[in-house]
């Protein structure tokens, strides 16, 4: 059983509640409960009621996980409520967990890059798929003369998602972002989007390093090199993440449907329930594109993410099939070896 603490109010500030306590009490492992604040090569920093502790970890811990720590090691990882993950950048079929037990995902995009909506759509899909609530945060609004147009354009790319504009330089919109940052909040977006600057504004102190953006291409350096969980002064916790150069989709069918709710709603009007939106008669989606009711770019983005997700699923199935074949091959080999041994 887990070891309780007289300072459970400290744990509550990190997101601990009765349901986590119930999971801990029914765990086969024993130890002190805490939340993973940082992961680094088999070592984790864990926030406990008695302070920050360092522990070894043999499992797959992620920032945001609730764990039980005993004798300087992670004894158990409690089941996750939500998981924000992307396809691994290595090209392998497993997912890379960006953060665990997340409530809100702040998808950041700088105002000057607002026209590049493809990455936004991907991140919003991943956020919905995780079980968290996405919020689209347009940063550096002090650098645009058409804020209303920027916000309107991005709102069309993320139907049903709250869109907030913010300038960490002037302070405009910081309170709005803070109000949207409910529970455990993770910041995601490309390098140079101003995530660390925004994080410092939300934290009320220069906790995280920030870097300049290259003038030649508008790209920033990875000033954040580790995912790290930090308590927010107004309650809740914030996870800052390194800039994402690649945002792979994997097992995100439901998230894609929610991110492209406008396309899905149109598809309900198709003549055939299994319409592929290609050349079928009575396709409401194609008709909407033809009549300029649905931007063709958005429709193609939807199809692209669907194909990518289906391809990733097929790769996973192929990998599992390959592993099964390898196991049976080894079983057969072992059986033949035993038969030969008996015949001697």
UniProtKB/TrEMBL annotation:
Residues holding GTP: 139-142, 189-197
Pfam hit, one: RsgA_GTPase
Keywords: Cytoplasm, GTP-binding, Hydrolase, Metal-binding, Nucleotide-binding, Ribosome biogenesis, RNA-binding, rRNA-binding, Zinc
Stored CDD domains: YjeQ_EngC
One of the GO biological process terms: ribosomal small subunit biogenesis
Record EC number: 3.6.1.-
GO molecular function, one term: GTP binding
Residues annotated to bind Zn(2+): 270, 275, 277, 283
Catalytic class of the enzyme: hydrolase
Boundaries of every CP-type G domain copy: 91-247
Superkingdom classification of source: Bacteria
Cofactor binding notes: Binds 1 zinc ion per subunit.
GO terms for cellular component: cytoplasm
Task performed by this protein: One of several proteins that assist in the late maturation steps of the functional core of the 30S ribosomal subunit. Helps release RbfA from mature subunits. May play a role in the assembly of ribosomal proteins into the subunit. Circularly permuted GTPase that catalyzes slow GTP hydrolysis, GTPase activity is stimulated by the 30S ribosomal subunit.
Oligomeric and partner information: Monomer. Associates with 30S ribosomal subunit, binds 16S rRNA.
NCBIfam families referenced in this protein's UniProt entry, alphabetically: ribosome small subunit-dependent GTPase A
Protein name: Small ribosomal subunit biogenesis GTPase RsgA
Taxonomic lineage of the native organism: Bacteria, Bacillati, Actinomycetota, Actinomycetes, Pseudonocardiales
Underlying gene: rsgA
């Amino acid at each position: 059983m887990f070891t309780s603490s007289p300072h459970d109010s400290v744990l509550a500030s990190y997101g601990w509640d009765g349901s986590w306590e119930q999971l801990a009490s029914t765990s086969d492992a024993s130890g002190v409960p805490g939340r993973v604040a940082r992961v680094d090569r088999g070592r984790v920093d864990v926030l406990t009621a008695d302070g920050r502790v360092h522990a070894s970890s043999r499992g797959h811990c992620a920032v945001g996980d609730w764990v039980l720590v005993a004798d300087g090691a992670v004894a158990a990882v409690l089941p996750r409520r939500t998981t924000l993950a992307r396809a691994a950048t290595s090209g392998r079929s497993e997912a890379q967990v960006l953060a665990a037990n997340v409530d809100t995902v702040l998808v950041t995009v700088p105002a000057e890059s607002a026209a590049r909506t493809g990455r936004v759509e991907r991140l919003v899909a991943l956020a919905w798929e995780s079980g968290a609530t996405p919020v689209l945060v347009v940063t550096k609004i002090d650098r645009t003369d058409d804020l209303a147009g920027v916000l309107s354009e991005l709102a069309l790319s993320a139907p049903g998602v709250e869109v907030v504009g913010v300038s960490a330089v002037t302070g405009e919109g910081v309170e709005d972002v803070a109000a949207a940052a409910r529970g455990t909040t993770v910041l995601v977006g490309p390098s140079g989007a101003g995530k660390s600057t925004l994080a410092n504004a939300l934290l009320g102190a220069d906790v995280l390093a920030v870097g300049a953006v290259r003038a030649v291409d508008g790209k920033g350096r990875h000033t954040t090199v580790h995912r790290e969980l930090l308590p927010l002064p107004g309650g809740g916790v914030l996870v800052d993440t390194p800039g994402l150069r690649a945002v792979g989709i994997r097992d995100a069918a439901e998230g894609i449907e929610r991110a492209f709710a406008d396309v899905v709603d149109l598809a309900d009007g198709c003549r055939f329930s299994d319409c592929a939106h290609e050349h079928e008669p009575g396709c409401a989606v194609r008709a909407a594109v033809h009549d300029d009711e649905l931007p063709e770019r958005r429709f193609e983005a939807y199809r692209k993410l669907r194909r990518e997700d289906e391809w990733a699923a097929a790769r996973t199935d192929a990998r599992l099939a390959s592993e099964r074949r390898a196991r049976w091959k080894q079983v057969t080999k072992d059986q033949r070896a035993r038969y030969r041994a008996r015949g001697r």
